[in-house]
Amino acid sequence: MIILSRSQIEALVDPGRALTAIQAAYIAASDGRAVMPPVGYLAFPEKDGDCHIKYGHIAGDPSFVVKIAAGFYGNPSIGLPTSHGVMLVFSAQTGVLEAILLDEGFLTDLRTGLGGAIATRALCRPDARRVAIIGTGIQARWQIRCLRLAMPETDFSFTIWGRSHDKAMETETQLAAEGIGASASPDLERLCGDADIIITTTPSRQALIRDAWIKPGTHITAIGADAPGKQELDTALVVRANRRVSDSLEQSLDHGEFSAAFRAGEMSAASCVELGAVLAGTAQGRLDPGDITIADLTGIAVQDIAIATSVLAAHRDASVV
């Protein structure tokens, strides 16, 4: 059995290879080749934390994956990282446990960043340049890194907003140390009104982004609403959007960014499409430069399958050399 530590995983992972694998996995999820049972979820509201258990199998794959990931959002105040987790890889032929990836949440953070980049690339206007990042945590940084990876020829301008402007400025400094230019803004309304792309990365339980702030042509990738009760976008904005795209329609309507409008009867399931179908060309994404498009990404098991198997492939390649 293979057991890999976080440091070993970080040395092996190829974000470009993982991006390609995750895009293919989204397509598999939408065309019926993936089995993804309902997400296991534990909430720890007194500690501002939660835990997700996601698992699944893609038809034809030799392995299946079970992922446990926890996010405790107050951890930075006590000197601990927000994310923790592990991925377990089993043989789909025998059920034998083949690998334990002790990634401490690293692979979940990376695959979430890559998923956001894939959705943004698929749905934003070709001339989109101004990117608003809502949130100051680790995922804010991953969304920027991964969008630059996915669209290397595009000269993006990144601006960060957080409830704490000091934390937004800290994120700006951290990115500068990586050679990534970004600025912090204290004015969320103005930032959203100026942006071509908005990426939301918070665990908010009340809408942050108001409908009135968003101009035609804006694309929004919303990744924070991954559990019941979370919401980053004004329901009226979700209703007004010209194109609504989800990673998993079932999850999005149950506990994602689209769920509030769906439960209120203000939008139908038929008015949404899945990201995998857009990527495969069997459904349309943006139809017009003036469209407001929203990608609601709740996080799905095929992302974990794709990134885990890409790490194990790299490990096996390295072992052969």
Report the count of strand segments. 17
Instruction: Domain count, please report it.
Output: 2
The percentage helix is: 25-40%
How is the biggest beta sheet arranged? 8 strands, parallel
- SS-derived structural category: alpha/beta
The CATH first-level class of the largest domain comes to: Alpha Beta
Number of helices: 11
Rg from Cα: 19 Å
Order of helices and strands: EHHEEEEEEHEHEHEHEEEEHEHHEHEH
Shape: globular
> Uncertain segments of ≥5 residues (pLDDT<50)?
none
Could you give the order of strands across the largest sheet? 10-9-8-11-13-17-15-16
Average of pLDDT: 95
Q: Which band does the percent of strand residues land in?
A: 25-35%
Q: Under the CATH scheme, which architecture of the largest domain would be assigned?
A: 3-Layer(aba) Sandwich
Describe it.
This protein has helices at 6-12, 15-30, 106-123, 138-150, 165-177, 188-194, 235-240, 249-255, 259-263, 275-280, 301-320; strands at residues 2-5, 34-35, 40-44, 49-58, 63-72, 83-91, 97-102, 130-134, 157-161, 182-184, 197-200, 205-209, 219-222, 231-233, 243-246, 272-274, 293-296. With 321 residues, it is of the alpha/beta class. The mean pLDDT is 95. Strand 6 and strand 7 form a beta hairpin. The protein is globular, with a radius of gyration of 19 Å. The strands form 3 sheets. An 8-stranded parallel sheet has the order 10-9-8-11-13-17-15-16, sandwiched between helices. The two termini are 19 Å apart. The chain is built from 11 helices and 17 strands.
